[in-house]
What we know:
With 229 residues, the chain is mainly alpha-helical. It has helices at 18-30, 36-49, 58-76, 80-111, 118-129, 131-144, 148-164, 167-180, 187-192, 196-228; strands at residues 5-6, 12-13.
Amino acid sequence: MNDVNTTATGGTSIPENTQLVQLHDEAAAAASAPDLHERVRELTARVLHERRMALNDIRELVVAISSGVGSGLTSRGGEMKDGLKQAIAGLDEAVGSAAQAASYTLREAATQGQSFKDNELKASLEQLRDLEGQIVEALKQAASQSGGKLKEELGYLSDHLIISGTRTGEQVREALQQLANGVKASGAAGRAGLSESASTATERLSLVASGILEALSDSLKRQSERLRS
Length: 229
């Protein structure tokens, strides 16, 4: 998908991409709603649920929604700082829920004995792992392509999330931990009754998730050390 581009006036606009244009406009309209957090959460969840966009399109989704909300707040004279904070919190909540659902799908597939190619399995789990970073990078991108107060507040939000983390990051780490602990949902008793192929699939899923979780933990530790230095 295409990215959001900067206009000559310092605002943001979306290239000729129907889905992104529609998403941008819906986000701008949501800025007039009394509950911006809920409106953006519902919008993001609906887009992901209807598969108009997928988790691997997360950067484009975040840029379109954040710039759309920013445009809406600017046009109606809304409080930019609080409005963007509400909107990104709603988006974060919806993406986190979608990430957990994706991890459940992997787990169910494994317990049903679906075979995985190691590279495909690793790519799927790494995509989940990287969602938090994608959200932050998308906000930075939207800030760099914006101007005025919108640029300032988007930059502040991205910096804040680097330190505080996101709801998506919390949910992804929880999901990876469940997978790494041997696909908890199946339970020890349940696994005893699994077919050989299902047992092998769950074990492979657990091992790959464990490695990715360990790498993520190391990355978070290094980040924390950099912040303290």
